[in-house]
Amino acid sequence: MHRTVKRALTRFSVLALAFGAVMAGTTAPAGAEGLTLNVDVGQVVRPATQVASGGLYGVGSDSQPSTDMLLPLNPTSFTQPAPGTTHLGNGATEPCCDSLEVGHNITRAGAQQFIRMPDIYPSFPYRWQGWDDWEEKVTTMVNDRLEATGTTNVHGWELWNEPDWTWDDAAGSFHDGWTRTYELVRSLDSVTPIVGPSYAQYDHDRMLSFMTHARDTGTLPDVIVWHELDDMNWDAFDDHVADYRAIEAQLGISPRPIAINEYNSYNQMDIPSVALHWMSVFERHGAREAHRAYWFEAGTFDGLFTLDDQPTASYWLYRWYGAMTGNIVETVPNSWIDGVASYDSSRKIVNVVFGGDWGDNTVNVEGLGDLGSSVDVRILYTPGSGRHTHVPSPTVVSDTTMAVSGGRISVPVADMDAEGAYQLLITPEGGPATSWQQVYEAENATVVNADTFGSGNASNGYYVGRIDNSGDMRSDSFVDFTVNIPEARSYTMTIRYANGTGATSTHGLAYNGGGWSTVSYAPTAGWGQFATTSVTVDLHAGYNVIRLAKGSPYFDGGTGYAELDSITLS
User: Fold this and answer.
1) Distance separating alpha carbons of residues 287 and 345, to the nearest angstrom
2) How far apart are CA 403 and CA 116, in angstroms?
3) pLDDT 10s digits, 497-540
4) Bridge partners (DSSP) listed for residue 539
5) pLDDT digit string, tens, across residues 477-504
6) Which of 87, 92, 463, 527 has its Cα between 20 and 30 A from that of 138?
7) Cβ–Cβ under 8 Å, residues 109 and 67
8) Is 145 helix (H, G, I), strand (E, B) or coil?
9) What whole-number distance in Å separates Cα of residue 93 and Cα of residue 21?
10) CA 369 to CA 41: how far, in whole Å?
């Protein structure tokens, strides 16, 4: 939003509101203790894809934050300003964060981006200069992107930002302006998705009117975007999603992905437990991606790093979240206690991030039968210390072994801090099934111009198919796996795949920006019927990004069609 805020609450008053009032339909508990978060490892919600790990103006340059700092957060996507931006957000003296200039940093981190077109203007709210000026700007922006043939990660044009209060009546109605801009962009670029309407707040009447107009003019967005920026209003998100889905059904519109490309309020941006609440509802209620709002300094991932690129308290929350692999599993909140949980069946790791209230509380976890009769239980904590405070590491709260009864454990958490956030790690006694992650599921990876499907034959219940496109950087199909390995050496990479074509298919293989080789996939018994093939990869210690592509820049393109289930490094 990056606007001038007319009313800024102090931190103390924000917490007074948070824990002593009725906000957005959620009542603060009369007594802060005795709350229970329930986690059911056996109830799968969706593949782990770090829905909430995105940011508006989160990347400032090709080196800020560095790729090495971004990779542990496993970011999903960003919203960045237009090519050639002149925008001076939040008191900046020089423009920054040009989508094409930061694009390679974002790609190296395994993420994608929306391009926010109106941020070509220098100020906010935008100062309209007439249709001739705007259409010239749009044409230049799109052509600049089309000339960037090595940039693969643009997955949406955001035509305008917060039109419910920034659209200038001198331009006519926003609906007509949307149609005119949409048609101009499509005349220049028929491939890249268009996203919108990007309202500052969700409103039923406004959304219904917009979607009706867009349907009737053939200008429907490919991705639906709005912002969630009100204090303590996370409980309204499921109602917003349900209302929007009802509008689609009413108008006969096929369901579109939902992106919240600005979330969290000015007052609460640096409180880890508040970000955790947003994570929880986005995962639970079906957002495809969500971006931390840009209220302060650009290029800090919106407060996950200090101005001198050091981790803040909130960084550790997002790092714990970034480490989630396998599937997101069910969490049931209790008043102000909430959380996100994942289960990686290949390593037998349960990862829960939680928080939200004071006092002595409990996390109940069931569905642990596969972890054995006793488990190691570790709790870590990060405080609510703000975006300017370097927090070099989280604090270990406890490290114990617990007996499992009926597949369940009950973990007490004493003297909780309502501002901070916590991580609960549960593994078999003695540690995870493997000392480092070896199996990487395709559905957990960065999936570009392809789709995730469920299947009982797939190793984690999901696989990636329709990896079909090559020949254009906007539509190339590939999967980027971000892997973290203990030492530099050659690894055998076993690819689990399906190929129902009846003939050998191929993908390109590249990693860490290196050259291309070819992977061949012999025919399998059919689509969704998996086999394996193996290749050798030379990786460095730490994080590596491995791309398997039907199409990609500097690669001539694969042949046939293959689906990807997982890769295993050994």
Assistant:
1) 24
2) 52
3) 999 999 999 999 999 989 999 999 999 999 999 999 999 999 99
4) 489
5) 999 999 999 999 999 999 999 999 999 9
6) 92
7) yes
8) helix
9) 40
10) 10
The tokens for 193 are: 């998705």
H/E segment holding residue 510 = strand 505-511
For residue 546, give the 3-state DSSP assignment. Answer: strand
515 CB-contact burial (10 Å; exposed 0-12 / middle 13-18 / buried 19+): exposed
In the chain, the amino acid numbered 316 is W
CB of 321 within 8 A of CB of 340?
A: yes
| Distance between CA atoms of residues 447 and 467, nearest Å | 9
* Pair 198, 161: CB distance under 8 Å: yes
Q: Are 460 and 534 in contact (CB under 8 A)?
A: no
Number of residues written out for the chain: 570
Strands, DSSP E only, in 417-459? Answer: 421-428, 439-441, 446-448, 451-454
What is the rounded (10 degree) CA torsion for 384, 110, 436, 367? 70
Strands 223-226 and 194-199: parallel
Largest CA distance in the chain: 71
pLDDT at 496 (0 to 100): 98
CA 369/CA 349 separation, integer angstroms: 12
pLDDT score of 1? 52
Amino acid at site 34: G
For the chain, residues with pLDDT lower than 70 are 1-32
Find where tokens 């339909």 sit.
25
The pLDDT of residue 152: 94
Residue 32, pLDDT score: 59
- CB of 328 within 8 A of CB of 46? yes
Distance from C-alpha of 146 to C-alpha of 157, rounded to nearest angstrom? 12
| pLDDT for the residue numbered 193 | 98
- Written in H, E and C, the secondary structure of 93-144 is CCCCCCHHHHHHHHHHCCCEEEEEHHHHCCCCCCCCCCHHHHHHHHHHHHHH
pTM of the model: 0.94
